């Protein structure tokens, strides 16, 4: 009965459907899948796409792929090995998930369907990672585009589910046509532990085969080390901007900054423009209308939608910050940092340039989301009282996102080889806690460990400051500690 009530509230609240799964019934397994399946697919998608880029494009950047191609193995061997490696990784992910559900005592058919779903959906994004590795010359660009595609697919499935049709008992939702444009929706419509319908996975298999085949065709025709999309020609002489470490970091990060800012602007616009549409669709069901009225009486619908979307904005900004600091590590490994530091540039100024660019970029990205949310609200003639809430939510996520590049820079000074791994692990863990911790029944104290959940947020009676001051203090102390440690650190070129 408790699960039925929770599902009814979820069906009545489009915000929950945007960032959770597709309700398929109130059985124990179906309810568990509803709460975690999109999250599992998201992790599998990131794993598969990063694996593909790491073993194709990053190997070409390091020169190892060129060395392998000069042997009897040939130029196609690394690509085919990556495909096999990636498919095996996706299968192991599915097997591990199935085993966990079987050990928990849930029905075998549902567990097998869930494992197959994760393996098939992850394979689609393996193919996408292989394709972006062919399109772009750098691993950073390929990873950035891959993440953007994954987040877009996640959002499309969420919006499509929110615009779907609810059953009369409010325990099941049928996806709208929009959702079927996303591999996330293909996975969710398998409905493990409810329907166990594997037919949507045919779409995953066809898409994965098409993407891998397309990537292989491009691999066979392009030059090693080049991308299908050629980079712009550089200037004959460097501009004055490159005479300073900060200018160099800005120049290296400008392209990704634009991409993350555009993504944040889209999310920001949705934060204030989607609620009215979703409310209109949801209220077509009288039972849903009654529940929405009850939720609206608590004064949390618009603010809840805004806060949830701005957690995503904070995550995008944090990803840019982490990526920019990791660029310093890449410069160090590739040897270009050593050339820069051979000039009268001190190590502290050099790292400070990347860290300063990361923090400034976070301001730009969150600012783009705030401007887009404000413009969307004014364009539709919405309640202008929400403008203050937009500013508060944006400022809060600014404080939360700033923590991550600082922590990544601190790792860079202490454990250089762990910079990339720990940087992404921290972001993923924090986003998971903020978006899913409460629904998974985790203690509030544990959830609030995530900087995204500890930010100041708009509340019915003003501002809930939460851990805002602690976030600012952590950022300031982290910056000071990083720069102090960098003064004593030697260059570590080992990859």
UniProtKB/TrEMBL annotation:
Tell me where on the tree of life, at the top rank, the source sits. Answer: Bacteria
For this UniProt record, the keywords arranged alphabetically read as follows: Membrane, Transmembrane, Transmembrane helix
Q: Which residues cross the membrane?
A: 31-53, 79-106, 112-132, 144-163, 198-218, 248-271, 304-322, 354-378, 390-415, 422-442, 462-486
Record has Transferase as a keyword: no
- List the protein's name: Polyketide antibiotic transporter
Q: Which lineage?
A: Bacteria, Bacillati, Actinomycetota, Actinomycetes, Micrococcales
């Amino acid at each position: 009965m408790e699960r039925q009530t929770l599902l009814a509230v979820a069906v009545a609240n489009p915000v929950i459907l945007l960032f959770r799964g597709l309700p398929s019934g109130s059985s124990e397994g179906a309810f568990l899948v509803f709460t975690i399946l999109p999250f599992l697919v998201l992790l599998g998608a990131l794993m598969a796409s990063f694996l593909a880029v790491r073993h194709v494009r990053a190997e070409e950047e390091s020169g190892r792929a060129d060395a392998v191609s000069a042997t009897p193995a040939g130029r196609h061997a690394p690509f085919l090995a990556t495909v096999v490696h990636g498919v095996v990784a996706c299968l192991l992910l599915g097997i591990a998930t199935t085993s966990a559900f079987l050990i928990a005592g849930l029905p075998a058919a549902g567990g097998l369907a869930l494992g197959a779903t994760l393996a098939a959906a992850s394979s689609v994004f393996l193919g996408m990672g292989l394709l972006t590795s062919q399109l772009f010359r750098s691993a950073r660009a390929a990873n950035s585009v891959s993440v953007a595609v994954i987040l877009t697919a996640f959002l499309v499935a969420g919006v499509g589910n929110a615009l779907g049709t609810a059953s009369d008992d409010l325990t099941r939702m049928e996806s709208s046509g929009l959702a079927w444009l996303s591999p996330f929706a293909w996975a969710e419509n398998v409905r493990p532990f409810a329907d166990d319908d594997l037919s949507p996975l045919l779409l995953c298999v066809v898409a994965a085969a098409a993407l891998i085949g397309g990537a292989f065709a491009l691999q066979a025709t392009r030059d090693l080390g080049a991308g299908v999309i050629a980079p712009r020609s550089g200037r004959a002489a460097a501009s004055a901007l490159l005479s300073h470490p900060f200018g160099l970091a800005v120049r290296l990060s400008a392209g990704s900054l634009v991409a993350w800012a555009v993504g944040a602007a889209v999310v920001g616009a949705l934060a204030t423009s989607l609620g009215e549409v979703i409310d209109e669709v949801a209220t077509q069901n009288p039972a849903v209308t009654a529940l929405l009225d009850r939720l609206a009486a608590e004064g949390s619908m618009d603010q809840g939608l805004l806060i949830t979307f701005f957690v995503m904005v904070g995550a995008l900004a944090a990803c840019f910050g982490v990526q920019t600091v990791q660029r310093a590590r890449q410069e160090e490994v590739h040897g270009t940092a050593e050339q820069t530091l051979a000039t009268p540039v001190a190590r502290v100024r050099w790292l400070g340039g990347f860290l300063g660019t990361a923090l400034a970029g976070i301001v730009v990205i969150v600012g783009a989301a705030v401007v887009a949310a404000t413009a969307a609200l004014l364009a539709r003639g919405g309640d202008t009282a929400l403008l203050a809430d937009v500013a508060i939510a944006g400022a809060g996520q600014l404080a939360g996102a700033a923590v991550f590049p600082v922590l990544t820079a601190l790792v860079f000074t202490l454990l250089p080889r762990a910079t990339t791994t720990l940087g992404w692990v921290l972001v993923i863990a924090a986003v998971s806690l903020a978006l899913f911790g409460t629904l998974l029944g985790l203690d509030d104290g544990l959830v609030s460990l995530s900087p995204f959940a500890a930010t100041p947020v708009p509340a019915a009676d003003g501002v809930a400051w939460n851990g805002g001051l602690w976030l600012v203090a952590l950022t300031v102390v982290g910056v000071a500690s990083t720069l102090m440690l960098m003064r004593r650190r030697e260059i570590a070129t080992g990859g």
